[in-house]
Specification:
12 helices; two-stranded parallel sheet; 325 residues; 1% strand; 2 strands; Ferritin; single chain
Length: 325
């Protein structure tokens, strides 16, 4: 690793030919990234896919102009130099990460790419003494700065008002199906289902340490169970709910958090202090669940609060009665 870092060239040490070669390879990489984004979006968001294809075509034009300049000044043998060969040069995320990016994240990544490219061309233009090269690099810096406007024009061409809204709504729906819905189910299960064993143990033993062990075991066990159940029962292909791994993690982690929320107060040695804090945490958890249902699932807040609080109160009361009996 250290030897790889020391072998990198500083940007200020590059020759003008190497700067042009770096610009050519960078434009080629950016075009590939945009086309990868387009391919990822083609089925679900065809309008946005067309926008990224258009941006890739713009990068192809830039690359061709750079190649023509290189041939005119230095010949047709272009040195192999890429971003990773230059110390401190901006980096691009690996293309395979596109599988984990949402539509909005892809749009944000494209915006950052154009800003980085603009700064590169501005710096490169200052480092060259050839008038034609400086002019082209300056033009490309201006073009990268204007890509936001180009993207807007492409969106207007490929994405009408209704289609953009439909894509955004579809992306939000996918986020809810993949993350919010299984996470909410897990939080509800972890918060409510563990109330009875935790508080039954608490009032039966009136011992913080024992209650902590039982509560932690119940929360972690429920989290593992919910996570595997969510991942195994639906692969997401027909339902469109997204990756079973993502849903499994969302459900499992939130289940464990829901249970641990009112188990961890029993780290406090004093039993009644720990119990008072645990009850307060339960109250917060139940209202948080009601808020999430209202915010993402469009359930009326009062109805969500009534359902969650009533259910939680019943399970809590069962635990207290069993433990105190």
């Amino acid at each position: 690793m250290l030897s790889a870092l020391t072998q990198r060239r500083r940007f200020s040490d590059l020759t003008e030919q190497e700067v042009l070669a770096l610009a050519i390879s960078s434009e080629e990489d950016d075009a590939r990234i945009y086309r990868t984004f387009a391919a990822r979006l083609a089925d679900q968001y065809p309008g946005s896919a067309a926008v990224f294809d258009g941006m890739a075509a713009e990068e192809d034009i830039h690359r061709q102009r750079l190649i023509e300049l290189h041939v005119a000044r230095f010949g047709d043998r272009i040195p192999l130099i890429r971003r990773e060969h230059v110390a401190g040069f901006y980096a691009r995320k690996p293309i395979w990460l596109a599988t984990n990016l949402t539509l909005d994240q892809m749009r944000g990544e494209a915006h950052d790419m154009e800003k980085q490219a603009q700064r590169f061309y501005e710096t490169a233009a200052q480092a060259t003494s050839d008038a034609a090269t400086r002019r082209l690099l300056g033009d490309l810096a201006a073009a990268e700065a204007g890509h936001e406007r180009t993207a807007d024009e492409l969106e207007q061409r490929h994405l009408g008002e209704g289609e953009r809204e439909a894509e955004d709504a579809s992306a939000r729906r996918q986020f809810i199906l993949t993350w919010v819905q299984p996470g909410l189910a897990g939080l509800m299960d972890g918060s409510v289902s563990t109330l009875a064993p935790i508080f039954a143990t608490a009032f039966a033993t009136q011992d913080s340490h024992t209650t902590l062990l039982v509560g932690t075991a119940a929360a972690v066990g429920a989290g593992i169970s919910m996570g595997f159940t969510e991942a195994a029962h639906d692969d997401g292909v027909l339902s469109g709910r997204g990756s079973p791994v993502k849903r499994g993690f969302a459900s499992g982690i939130m289940t464990a958090i829901g249970g641990l929320g009112h188990a961890l107060p029993y780290l406090i040695p004093d039993f009644w202090t720990a119990t008072a804090i645990a009850v307060a945490v339960v109250f917060i958890e139940l209202w948080a669940i009601a808020w999430i249902q209202n915010r993402y699932m469009e359930t009326p807040f009062l109805r969500a609060a009534f359902q969650v609080v009533l259910g939680g109160a019943l399970v809590f009361a069962a635990g207290v009665l069993i433990g105190g009996g």
